């Protein structure tokens, strides 16, 4: 695992969110997600796509600076952030991407999802190829939480932040912390009764 050589390095904590779908599928960000990021004192918020509105980014940035990437639905709403972004924290290279690749790939994957259901491996296969230099890959799109290590790399999906059947209508999000020595810690969170993170 990479590590920082800076003797003054401190732990860096990220709030991780994806698939907010506002206003197309939800009216507003769940208050519990915002309060959880505030309580955790996150240094930065990473949004892995399908934000659907710049207003969501503006609200999140009231808590901490943000990085957002483009999801498959953002294009329809005129949202044009980068398709992926990479940053470094204590020597760890973190890449954020929605996970849908291109619209053509999205349509093929949609058919696979309809006929065979959710399979993490489908997303791992192309994320691993697309971002070979990343130590951690944060993605959204599937609406399924995941925090899996494969061949010494973390694949982290915070789940869907809007209530849907994939999360039993309970908004999901995550926290990712990189310690000074490069150790990565993740927390997959969900809201109980709309406001109490677990």
CATH hierarchy: architecture: 4-Layer Sandwich
- What is the N-to-C order of secondary-structure elements (H for helix, E for strand)? EHEHEEEHHEEEEEE
- The CATH topology assignment is Purple Acid Phosphatase, chain A, domain 2
Strand order of the largest sheet: 3-2-1-9-10-11
Classified in CATH, the superfamily is Metallo-dependent phosphatases
- By CATH reckoning, the class would read Alpha Beta
* Low-pLDDT runs: none
End-to-end Cα distance = 28 Å
What fraction of the residues are assigned to beta strands by DSSP?
A: 25-35%
| Helical amount | 10-25%
Rg result:
16 Å
SS class = alpha/beta
Got a strand count? Answer: 11
Number of domains: 1
Counting DSSP H or I runs of 4 or more residues, the number of helices is: 4
Query: Main β-sheet, in a few words?
Result: 6 strands, mixed
Q: Which overall shape is indicated by the principal axes computed on the Cα atoms?
A: globular
What is the overall pLDDT average?
89
List the helices and strands and how they pair.
Blueprint: E1 12-17, H1 31-40, E2 44-47, H2 54-60, E3 66-68, E4 84-89, E5 92-97, H3 103-116, H4 120-130, E6 136-138, E7 146-150, E8 153-157, E9 172-178, E10 184-192, E11 196-197
Parallel strand pairs: 1-2, 2-3, 5-6, 6-8
Antiparallel strand pairs: 1-9, 4-5, 7-8, 9-10, 10-11
């Amino acid at each position: 695992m990479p590590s920082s050589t800076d003797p003054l390095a401190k732990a860096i904590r990220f709030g991780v969110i994806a698939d907010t779908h506002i206003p197309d599928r939800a009216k507003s960000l769940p208050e519990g997600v915002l309060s959880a990021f505030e309580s955790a004192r996150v240094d930065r918020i990473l949004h892995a796509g399908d934000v659907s509105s710049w207003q969501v980014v503006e609200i999140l940035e009231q808590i901490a600076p943000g990085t957002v990437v483009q999801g498959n639905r953002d294009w329809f709403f005129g949202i044009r952030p980068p398709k992926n972004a990479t940053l470094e924290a204590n020597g760890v290279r973190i890449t954020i991407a929605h996970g849908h690749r291109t619209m053509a790939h999205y349509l093929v994957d949609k058919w696979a999802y309809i006929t065979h259901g959710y399979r993490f491996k489908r997303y791992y296969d192309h994320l691993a190829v697309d971002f070979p230099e990343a130590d951690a890959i944060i993605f959204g799109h599937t609406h399924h939480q995941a925090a899996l290590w494969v061949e010494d790399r973390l694949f982290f999906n915070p789940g869907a932040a809007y209530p849907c059947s994939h999360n039993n209508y309970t908004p999901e999000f995550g926290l990712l912390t990189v310690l000074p020595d490069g150790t990565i810690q993740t927390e997959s969170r969900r809201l109980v009764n709309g406001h109490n993170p677990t």
